[in-house]
Amino acid sequence: MDLALAGKVAIVGGASQGIGFAIARVLANEGAQVAMVARRREPLERAAATIGAEAHAIAADIRKADDCERIVAGAVERFGRLDILVNNDGAPPLGHLHEFDDAAWAKAVEQNLMSVVRLTRYAVPHLRAAGGGSICNITALSVLQPIARFGLSVATWAGVLGYAKTLSLEVAADRITVNTICPGRIATGRLDKVFGAGDGQAPVDERALAEMAKQVPLGRIGTPDEIVGLVAFLASPWGAYIIGSTFHVDGGRRAALI
Hints:
- By secondary structure, the chain is of the alpha/beta class.
- The chain has helices at 18-29, 41-51, 65-79, 102-129, 151-171, 189-195, 197-200, 206-214, 225-235; strands at 9-12, 33-38, 55-59, 84-87, 133-138, 176-183, 246-249.
- Strands 3-2-1-4-5-6-7 form a seven-stranded parallel beta sheet, sandwiched between helices.
- Strand 5, helix 5 and strand 6 (176-183) form a beta-alpha-beta unit.
């Protein structure tokens, strides 16, 4: 299937590794030009170099308002337009909700919610100018099926779900689609940070990975490419009638009827 993404321009967050890198790579393979965003310059530039001339590295911190504006301006300056925005980053620390102070909450809000608000605010005029486009937010299954100690992510990403659904109603007439993906257990460095020995200082061992796989009805951990396919589809003309939706891509872990 030709996804008709040749000549399109995308911004992809968290693109130096994991799901973000996989998204950037596949969009570029489909013919799109990709502005890749991450905080650490050196790993980001290495990642962009592996993709080639279709990739442009923008080192920035999406928790900062000025950087969000600079990301969008930099992508448009480099490629001349904008068609796709993929809001993706890491996640706040784990812990019991009653133990987090105001500073921790403020950082989580800036990282998970306000980054989406700001990047979208700057992106929408360019998507309109392009005649339409796609906004895709990457969150996690925990926002639909909360897990103890993941509360900072759950609370702030719940705000993203509400924001995305409302925004989808407001920009649909501009042919801009807004959707959110909630990945389950995916084989990225995030698994090590959350489940690795020594509070994430060591990789997840094989026994722990096997136990995680048992919790997935499909019987295995997912791969970043299994998130990417949906992102690319939603960004393509084939996904143009899918607006305001939330998808759980989780090997069957979501234990609910809807």
